[in-house]
Amino acid sequence: MTYGWKQCTLRPTKEEVHRVRLTVGGDRLDYPGDASSQCASIITTKILLNSVISTPSAHFGTADITAFYYGTPMERYEYMRIKYDEIPQNIVDAYNLKPLVHDGHIYMEIRKGMPGLKQAGRLANERLVNHLAKYGYAPVAQTPSLWRHHTRLVAFTLVVDDFGIKYEGKQHFDHLISAISDLYDVTVDKTGTKYLGLTIKWDYKNGVCEISMPEYVETALHKFQHNRPRKRQDAPHPWIQPTYGSKIQYAPNDIKSPSLPATAKKRIQQIVGTFIYYAVALDFTMLVAIGSLASQTNNPTEQTMSELVWFLDYCASNPDTTIRFIRSDMHLWASSDASYLSAPQAKSRAGGYFFLSSKPTQTSRKTPKTPPLNGPIHTISKIIKAVMSSAMEAEVGATFINAREACPIRVALEELGHPQGPTPMEVDNSAAVGFANGTIKHKRSKAIDMRFHWVRDRVRQGQFHIYWIPGKQNEMADYLSKHHPTSHHRYIRQKVFQTQHLANIVVSLLLQGCDKSSPSPSRNPSRNPSQNPSWNFGRAYQSPSTNDNDRPLYPFTHKYVQTVETVCT
Fold first, then answer.
1. Which residue of 212, 255, 368, 503 shows the fewest CB atoms closer than 10 Å?
2. Which residues in the chain are classed under CATH 3.30.420.10?
3. Alpha-carbon distance 308 to 29, whole Å?
4. Residue 251, pLDDT score
């Protein structure tokens, strides 16, 4: 026996924005079977979006099943009670509930699925699978919640009740919607501009897709009551400059900072949990900072809170990130790097950057031709659990982690109809490359032994082509493996992201030496460009909710440079 729970939510992306639902208190119930169900990952979704723009005549649409968890027949009934005085009078009269009152409650038997039941998601998913199988749709063998039709040119990802649909021909899209509509009420968007919280802009003619999450950061900052900083913060975390030229690099001294109460620990966990999806989906520049904060949540100190404020200032200064995917051959490329002893307790950090680009023309060469850089479908920034005994061992560990992450991506691409040759993976440590390719031998510790053999076997199987490049060219993976100075963060954002605020950064920096500009526009309202239209040098310090039609396709253009020159002269 459990209780009923009224849930009120605001869903701006749904047809019913203000939503009130009666849910079941699942924490009081015990379900003996497997209650889990699969959902497509954000990586699978990005692969599908790339497949759309890289497939001639393909388009993208979305569909959403209404009340998906309701109405699924149950073999095992559950029981719930609701307070009588909480039931609206019109429902009491319609169902004649007054004679059924016992101890001030109405007791009921649940025979069909409802939100809150532990098994509701699995039962609803099984019902959908069985229904769509009648029309020729089925999940692929290995990639979770990636579906295809056995003859029609249609594929889709499924996240609970949300469909992201790739189709080549309107008739195939209509066939899928008709199949779903035979059992469910469904909302359809043929433009495919909203999916999983992402705002998607399509340019099918030029093979371009841009994804963003407008107002996500500002909404989160409002939730945690964090104000915009008076000064821009373009680094997500503090950076300690290394002692260049020194024979010995010493670890920073441990700072004995006072501990924080349990409420602060919960706040840090909430902030990390809120921004981790945004970082994984869009802004990977936050990953290193989030990883550092997450590692301190068990024993947070005042220093942790200081780093948290620093991170939130960075979020407030860079709230509008857009990733651009371009048409490609859908071949997976990866960059791997590791930073040795860069994390607390003598740990090392692994970084990885995965993107889809052109097929390698000569896979037998040691260093293939560098392909066009595309938006990332996956990024990695994680602390290696084992303590590495050398920089080479850390590089092998990072190569293992990145190769392991690449395996399911390769499978998803092939199941979507994009065959893969050996995945090129660039590594800037020649010893690690020699280990993987079997060109050198070295005594190994047991910690490195499994990683060495696993990577080497995969290379022999033809799944990976691991090659060496200079460290300066391994920019993307290197960025994700360690802390960097502010200038490098600006450089990476300029190289990868399509964001309006990048142009504003350049403008504001250039204007610092201009005698017509004040040191801080926020301190002088008359000089603030958002309050004085006569200052037409861009939209620096404005809210990102400005008209998207005015956003330049590239962050740095001659228009902005000429405008800066005009203002400064």
1. 255
2. 328-479
3. 38
4. 57
